[in-house]
Design a protein that fits this description.
With 340 residues, the chain is α+β, with helices and mostly antiparallel strands. Helices cover 64% and strands 9% of the residues.
Length: 340
């Protein structure tokens, strides 16, 4: 490494570390790489997006910083890892099913061979001499034991392999839970929300507002139209929520048919107005059921909106929003609470 490059690297680190401390960024290799690239001014679009992210927050949301890292800093191999995980998951499902079928076939073969062996023992009408029958039976008995041992070992091996696949699938599912995005709606997921709200609450969190939203009568969509249409409703709502995000606000899929929006550096009145705007946009949504050709229009959301109170716990913060959401449901749904 040339002396000029060493000097430039040192200067970039001197710039990056104070910024990381200012925005409460954990000192991980990923974050060092992101902020080093930022202060180097090598990627103007990265700087533009990170500046926009920081403009409305006193902290750097970790999940969204991770997104920027993957988009601008990570090499192609690292970026493709997530796609590979999906392919591996499909492969494991197919292989697991194949092994299950093979185990069943092996067990059937063992039963069939055992039955055949019993039949061979009944050779009274075959007209063979005693010596011939004894010799044949001894040979077949020996072959039978060998095959039974072989098939038993093979079945045990398959069972062991199936256990290993189950373990790999469990590890893969755990890894996928740590991913940032919900695969169905395209929104950031619950893991990302938990990560980012913890960072906000570790700072002053002044003006941090939370909007909790739930699709009204979602079970009816699944029961009446099927789960495929229910998924389409989730996707449509997710897209609309994402389109409505402004001024540093971020939407997440909280779980099931429930969504949450974080609005930093805001006020309850402003966050409530934002929820009301979203509510009006969602109630205009319509979907067409491809099987029946019918159009579904009655898609609505109920909302609970709160502003963070100093010294409040995360549990209390979410519980207050959930209380307003429940009350909105009780009062007839498709509304935003509290009223201001």
């Amino acid at each position: 490494m040339s002396s000029n490059l060493l000097i430039r690297s040192a200067e970039n680190l001197k710039k990056a570390v104070p910024l990381m401390m200012k925005y409460k960024v954990p000192t991980t290799p990923l974050n060092y790489a992101l902020w080093y690239t930022y202060v180097s001014d090598e990627l103007p679009l990265l700087n533009e997006k990170l500046d926009s992210l920081l403009e409305n927050s006193e902290v750097c949301p970790p999940a969204q910083a991770n997104v920027l890292y993957r988009e601008f800093v990570a090499d192609q191999t690292e970026s493709e890892t997530w796609a590979m995980r999906n392919s591996i998951d499909k492969m494991l499902i197919q292989l697991g099913q194949s092994l299950t079928d093979t185990c069943k076939d092996t067990n059937d073969f063992q039963k069939s061979f055992a039955q055949t062996f019993d039949d061979i023992n009944n050779v009274d009408d075959n007209g063979l001499s005693v010596e011939e029958v004894i010799g044949l039976l001894k040979k077949l008995q020996g072959d039978s034991k060998n095959i039974q041992r072989s098939t038993s070992f093979f079945s045990a091996s398959l069972e062991s392999a199936r256990g290993e696949i189950a373990s790999l699938k469990a590890q893969l599912e755990k890894s996928q839970k740590q991913a940032l995005y919900d695969s169905l709606t395209g929104l950031l997921n619950r893991h990302a929300f938990d990560s980012e709200i913890s960072v906000f609450l570790d700072s002053k969190a002044d003006g941090l507002c939370l909007i909790l939203a739930d699709i009204d009568h979602f079970k009816m969509f699944n029961d009446q139209w099927g789960h495929l249409l229910g998924d389409q409703v989730l996707k449509a709502v997710g897209r609309k929520l994402n389109d409505c995000m402004r001024e540093g606000s971020t939407a997440y899929r909280f779980g099931g048919e429930e969504f949450v929006i974080l609005v930093p550096k805001s006020k309850l009145r402003i966050a409530r107005h934002m929820a009301e705007t979203i509510r009006k946009m969602i109630e205009k949504l319509s979907l067409k059921d491809k099987r029946s050709g019918q159009t579904i229009k009655n898609i609505t959301l109920s909302f609970g909106v709160v502003e963070f109170q100093q010294e409040e716990s995360l549990t209390s913060f979410i519980a207050r929003a959930d209380k307003y959401l429940y009350e909105a449901k009780r009062l007839g749904r498709n509304r935003v609470l509290p009223m201001l």
